[in-house]
Design a protein that fits this description.
Layout lengths: L2 H36 L16 E2 L9 E5 L3 E4 L2 E5 H5 L7 H8 L8 H5 L5 E6 L5 H13 L4 E4 L2 E2 L6
Parallel strand pairs: 1-7, 2-5, 5-6
Antiparallel strand pairs: 2-3, 3-4
Helix pairs in contact: 3-5
Amino acid sequence: MTPYRIKRHRKRRHGASHFALVPFIDMMTILVVFLLAHTADVDILPNTKSIAIPQSISEQKPHPTVVVMVTKDSMFVDGRLIGKVADLVGGSGPVIEPLKAALTAQDDSVLIAAAKTDPAKREVTIMGDKHMPYSVLKKVMMTCTEADFAKVSLAVVQRERAAT
């Protein structure tokens, strides 16, 4: 072989490595797009270790609402402490006044635009421990409806269905 042919042969062989990278870059781009699209499906409800949420076969995903969280000791509205459960529920009457005041003073940025104008579309989600007494849950639900929240939802963990 002549030196010219050897140089041309080596040039051809070294240039091929550039073309082998293109499918790899395409594959990585597809992988990044896939991961970005599927990580947008995030839970809306806050995660807490102090509440054991009951299980259900609910199909609906939660959407942004006002969250009332009732632990064994304390009560929160969107992460702000309202008070101790024993002090709040111990009062007479079906309505918990500090909770009602916190719900009516709720920042409008949490509520969706339609709910600001129409009180019938205001929603609240109650996150309560599965061992919470029904009397406490009943007072919390009554207080939410008294604070003009028309739709009251209970937070549950989706249970896996048994194979049929």
